[in-house]
Amino acid sequence: xxxxxxxxxxxxxxxGLSISDIILVGVLLAVGAVLKFFVGSLFSAGMKPNFIIxxxxxxxxxxxxxxxxxxxxxIIAGAICQVFPGTPYINLISxxxxxxxxxxxxxxxxxxxxxxxxxxxxxxxxxLASGMAFIGILYAAFYTGANVKTMPIGVFLVIVLGTAxxxxxxxxxxxxxxxxxxxxGRDD
Length: 188
Fold this sequence. Notes:
Layout: H1 19-38, H2 51-63, H3 67-81, H4 91-106, E1 111-112, E2 115-116, H5 118-143, H6 153-181
Antiparallel strand pairs: 1-2
Helix pairs in contact: 1-2, 2-3, 2-4, 2-5, 2-6, 3-4, 4-5, 5-6
């Protein structure tokens, strides 16, 4: 008589982004672009809030990509930003900076009890990192003689901080429902 052997399920290590991950990133970046176009058009202060940052932060939270994949998500987000009026090419550097910050913060234990603070804290600091990189590159270009428009740093900082707060709220509100709807589990 044979005895039944214990069945073991081995979960394979994630090798890269799945097709559903790529589609999710694309949809969220498209939503960010639509928000940037329609809501951003209500602002006339020169620099407009960038909702694309909120959406790539949400994507990174949901799919937890490797760092190189996060950088690629940031580059794609920066390329999408090139469609909108503004200072060309700077977002190709500032968005990957924000994406890297988010990718790092995804792996930190940021929670109070069962409530995850990753969406609000991660998005806030990622938006700050992206905004500060943008401002730094813009002013470096300005001081080296490039033909770029600037405004007082205080105005930029208010816009960056305001965008960081708005992005953080958007991502915090959307994170749990999207995570559950996509079947990404309840645990962090």
